[in-house]
Structure formats: C-alpha cells, structure tokens
## 1
Amino acid sequence: KAGVTQTPRYLIKTRGQQVTLSCSPISGHRSVSWYQQTPGQGLQFLFEYFSETQRNKGNFPGRFSGRQFSNSRSEMNVSTLELGDSALYLCASSASGLAGVHEQFFGPGTRLTVL
Amino acid sequence: AQSVTQLDSQVPVFEEAPVELRCNYSSSVSVYLFWYVQYPNQGLQLLLKYLSGSTLVESINGFEAEFNKSQTSFHLRKPSVHISDTAEYFCAVSGRGSGGSNYKLTFGKGTLLTVNP
C-alpha cells in the first residue's frame, strides 16, 4: 500500500498570502488529522476529519481551516499568512475515526516558510 | 485538558548503552498512551502504544514502555541502543475530554536521542 502523501513538500510564501496544502491518506483510511510542528511548540493538533466531517479541532485561529473530500483526501488552508505560520505541517491518516486510539500513519510533511 | 511533559529535550548516549526517555502526562480522564519516533527527514511512526491490559508494552525493535498510573508516567526504555536508533521520540496521550469531545492526540515536545559510536 502506498503511504500518506502530501503535496507540495516545500512552499515559500509571503505574509498576507494564503496557502492550500494537500494530503492523500492511505487507501481505505477514512480519518485524516493535521498537525503543525515547530521547534518551539512541538507538534500541535490542528483538526481531524472523518467521512468529510470535522470531528475535532485544536486551538488555532480561524485562519486555519480544512476540508475532506468524498475520496478521503484532505486539504488545509491558511489565510492571511503570518511569519509564525512557518512550520512543518504533517498529515496523518488512520483506519477508524478515533485518531487518539488507533495508530496514525504520518506523511513526510509540507515545509512552509513565510517571508 | 491533557498535557505531556518530556523531561529531556536531548539525550546523548553511546552505542550499546541503556537509555530511558522520560514522559509524564496529566489528564482528568482515562488515557491512551503512545510513543512515536521521527527519523531524520521522515514523518512520524508509531513505536508502541498502551490502550489497556498489561502495563508493560514492547516494540519490535527492542524498546519497551511501562504505564505507571500512580506516577502518571510512560517512560521509554531500551537496554542497548544502536546508532540506527538516533531519532526524535515523541510521547503522546489521548483521552476523552469534557463536554463529550472525541479523543485527540496531545504530543510532548520530543526528545532527541543521539547514539554515538
């Protein structure tokens, strides 16, 4: 089985712009979660989607949003980028809807740099 | 709310030495506990997990962790490390929060294990 794929792998944007990141889960997985990883804050949960519905959400401002499509692929969008949004954004998929119970399979991440 | 504290941000050891990576958590509800590993330039991989049952859990590559409810800890150990174990290790906890929210993972800030020859 192919693993979790994320596109693009690297992205450079300027402040004020918006960005869309894409994640394709492992075939058959219906749960997709997104995390932000930074040296200072570590891994922080953004949101989780299951069957096109947001099941859980972390403590991020409304500039961060996401969605899931009927084929389980997911996108996250960050509007009005700030310098502090520079991070590695990780996507993870799991077979069930309970990301906090079942093993999550992580993609390689998208490295976003905001200038 | 739940939180995870990994007491050491970096742990340097020599090859074949034993190692312990410490993890403490806080939660007001029952928890599930995980250790994930991130090798350089790769995504995270599940190393081992505690859901219920035996408090000692093992991974296929020689790591083990013990759930200690009274001390709210889930320390990771390996009796003899290899250079290939060099990676960042993340402890994570999930638990049903108040208000009926679903399980979600809270990660510690990670411990960088460096194994030197």
Note: The two ends of chain B are 41 Å apart (CA to CA).
## 2
Amino acid sequence: DQQVKQNSPSLSVQEGRISILNCDYTNSMFDYFLWYKKYPAEGPTFLISISSIKDKNEDGRFTVFLNKSAKHLSLHIVPSQPGDSAVYFCAASEDNYGQNFVFGPGTRLSVLP
Amino acid sequence: DTGVSQNPRHKITKRGQNVTFRCDPISEHNRLYWYRQTLGQGPEFLTYFQNEAQLEKSRLLSDRFSAERPKGSFSTLEIQRTEQGDSAMYLCAGEGGPNEQFFGPGTRLTVL
C-alpha cells in the first residue's frame, strides 16, 4: 500500500508554459514534504520542501502548494524550461529525519522546445 | 555534482554471488543513508548511519545485506548470495542537516 502516490507517470509540457506535478498521500501524520529531481545517470537532487505549518513555499520558478485537508501537494514550475525535463519525486515524512521519508514513484516531466 | 560518489556505477553478477558497493560522502555528512530503487518506484530506505553507528535498518534489509561505515567516513553495502530480486539501483545519500540529503549517482545491480 503506497503511502505517497504520484498518479501521473509522465507529463509533457510546452516550453514557457506551467508544469504542475501532483502528489497525494494517505498518512495524515506526515508533516514534511520534499520534492526531488532526478536526471538520468544521476542521483536525486533536492528541489524544494514544505512543512505542514505552511500551505505554500516558493523558490524562483518552483512553488510547492500543500493542501493538508485533501492530503495533496503539487509542484508548479513556471515558466518551464527544457532543462527541467527529469523525473520528479515527492517525499513525505512525519518528522524531518531522512530515514523516515517515504518517496512516491515519480513523474517523468518532458518540456518540449 | 553533489560530491557524493558511488562505486561501481554498474555491477552485473550471477545469482548466488556476493557483491559489495562503496559510497563516499563528503566529510561534513554526519549521516549516511542507503536506499534501493526499483524500476518505476521511488527510493526506499534501507539503513542509515550517524557517523560510524548504524542506527536503523529497514525490514527490506534481509540478513543477506550488511552495511558498514568504519570511522564514520565511507560506507559499504554488501549483499551475500544475491538473488534476481536484488536487481535494483542502490543509492546512498549524505546528510549534513535537515532537508540536506545529497544523493550519489547510484550503483545499478543486475543479477543474472
């Protein structure tokens, strides 16, 4: 039973448009959420995080929105660039300790020029 | 480049053989994590070290798996009597603080 779900295995977006990657979770005790980006032949790299005391966190072109009541978070990338093409993993935890992070299966984003 | 290296990058072995992977985090990484990632899935936690002490093991880590981190620097993950189900990407990550996990490029294991 997956506690963190990313129901879209893939997403294609035109360069310059908005990319929206979604993540749903089942454990209401999750309080910390992270997004990682992974390029082929590389390990995941940390992108942005949010804790449950916030509903939005922004870093440049990347914004994460959290809806705790719906157990849903989303990552918005605007404007999307071809270099954003990668697999994006959502991860969640009850605390902020790495051993407790549960990762989703990932969404492959393709930004088309 | 996160500064975390893993060797080898690829390993092909026959079922029943033993394999060992190495992870070199940067010196500031007090915590070191091992994850396994199978096709179509996200990373799954295996075990972690705080300096040289192995503090937690996932139930995924069967008794055929052993990990060490002598002197709190590099770490090794050994799989004995490999099975085809062990085929996966093995990732290690160093952590200097909360939310600061830096993953290595991974070792892809294929068990024939």
Note: The mean pLDDT of chain A is 94.
